[in-house]
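Per reviewer request, we include the raw input and output of the structure prediction for the construct analysed in the revised manuscript.
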Amino acid sequence: MCGIVGYVGERQARPIIIKGLHRLEYRGYDSAGVALVGKGGQIDLYKCKGKVDDLEHFLEGKDTTSTIGIGHTRWATHGEPNDANAHPHFSQSGRLALIHNGIIENFRVLKDALISHGFSFRSSTDSEVLVNLIEYIQDTNECTLEEAVRIALQQVVGAYAIAVIERGNARRIIAARQSSPMAIGIGEGEYFLSSDAASIIDYTQEFVYLNDGEVAVIEKGKPLQIKNLFGEASKVDIQKLEMSISQLEKGGYPHFMLKEIHEQPDTIVDCIRGRVNPETREIILSGVLDNKDKFLKAGRIIFVACGTSWHASLIGEHLIENLCRIPVEVEYASEFRYRNPIIRPDDVVIAVSQSGETADTLAAIEIAKRCGAFVYGICNVIGSSIARATDSGTYIHVGPEIGVASTKAFTGQVTVMAMLALVIGKLRGTIDMDYYHQVAGALLELPETIRKALESAPAVEKLASIFTYAHNFIYLGRGYNYPTALEGALKLKEISYIHAEGLPAAEMKHGPIALIDAEMPTVVIATLDHTYEKTVSNIEEIKARGGKIIAVISEGDTQLRKRADFCLEVPSTAECLMPIVSIIPLQLLAYYIATNKGRNVDQPRNLAKSVTVE
C-alpha cells in the first residue's frame, strides 16, 4: 500500500525517483522521502510528512546530485504519519538506508532483541527494525549487504518489498520481496526499481518481476542477479510491458476518477476485443477453453475478493448460477484465509483483484492450491502476483486505474464474468443458444450503451448539488442490481466520507425502514427487469414514510418518473449486463458530491489503491 522507486545508472536519480513517486502516490500519500548516495559516498536522506509535492519543496536548493537512490511514498501502518516515521529509514550507524512496503508481523520480538544488543530507534515503524536487523547481522557476521539481507529475511515473518542502499557504494541496490510487488526495469546500462512497473514505463518496457522469497542484486554495469533466501540462483525472466504514457495522465480531466469513469466505453472495447466475434457472436476465453475439463467437472465455484472486486463477484455469482447451473459461493478473502474452509479438488476458486497484489486474496489462493482446487484469476495488472500465482485466468484489460475509488475495473470485472458465464454455460450445455447470442450481441453494443449512460453526467452533477450535505444515504437494488447498490454506496463512502449503506430492496421492511425520514435520501436502482414491480412496491413503502427517492430508471419509464422525486435514466441492455450500465450514474453521483464537498477525490483519506497488507 506504499510506493517504492529506485534507480542506479548514469542519469541523475532524483528526478527519476520523484516522477515515479508522483505516479505511485495513489498507493500512499501520508509521507514521502528519498535517500541518495552522494559524491563523497555518504547517504543523503530527505523525508517529510505529506505528499510528494511537499517532498519536492523540501528538496529545493539542496545538493541532490547522485546516480543512485531509493524513494518511498507511505500509507501509514505502524506509527502515525510524521517526519520520523516516513521512509527511507537509516540503520543506527547511518550506514544503511531502507524503504519497505508491507508489514513485519514479528517486529516486536526482533525489536526487543535488538534493544538488548544496544540498538535504539527513532521511529515507531516495523521498517526501522528491519534495517537495524540487517546492520546487526552484517556487523556480527562480517558479511556483505546481500548476505545480511538474505539472513535477516529468514528471520522475518510477514510481507515485504524492500530496497536497501549502503554508504560508500554508489553502484548497488539490494531488493527483495515477499507477498508485496516488486518490478525491476532494465535499461541500457541502468536499472529501475518500482512496486508498480507503470511508474517507470517512461524509461523502459523490459521488466523482471521478483517472486516471493527472492533477493535481487542490482548493480550498475553488471548483469542482474536474483537469488532465493539461501543464495541459490533464480532465473532472470525478462518480460515486455506494453503501455501508453497517456494512460497515466489526466488527459484534461480535473481528476483521474472522472477520466476513468468516462474511459469506460473504450475500456470495455479493450476488454471484449478478440473475445467476442462480431460476426458469429461466439465468445472465446482461452483461459477457460484450455482448462475446460476443470469447468465441466466443477462441483462448485468459489469467488474470493475484497471491496469492489467482492461486489463484482456477487454479480458473477448470479451470472454463473443462472447460466451455468453450478453452485457458487462468494467469500471475503480476508475472512476466507482465517477460516478452515472446506475446499474440494473439484472446486474452482476464482480470485478477483484489480491490482493483482491484494494480500488477503493472495493468501486465499495459497489455501485453495494447498487443498488441490483449480484457481482462476481475474485481474487487471499484467505480470502481477495473482496473475502468476493462479493456474489460469483472464485479464480485464482496462488500463491503469489511478483513482483510489475503483470505477472502470468494476465494469471490466463484471464484463469478464459475463463472458466467463456464457463460455462455461455453452460448454456445459446449460444455456439456451439464442440467449447466448443475444447477450453476446449486447456485449458488442455495451461500449455504446455506456456512452449513452454517460450522457446523464450534467443531470447527475445538478442532482449532486441538492444532496451534497446529506449525512446518510441508503442504496437499494434487487437481483443483479443488489451488488450495484453495494458498489454505489461504497463509492460515496470512499470519496465523500458520507455514510452510505447498500441493501437488497426487500430487506428494507426487516429493520432499515426505521431509518427513513425526509432527511434520508434513498437511491433505488429500478431498471426494467423481472424484479421491477417488486422494486416499485419498495419505493412506495419509502414514499409513504416521507423518504426522498433518487431512482435509476430505464429510458422511457414513465411510471417511476411520476413517483420518484428525482430520476436518472440509463439505456437498456440485457438484464444480466445492467449492473455495468446502472453503476455509471452512481459513480458520477459520488464524484460530484465529493467534489462539491472539496474532497481529494483521487486520494481519499485513510485509503490506498493496492491493499498489499492485511
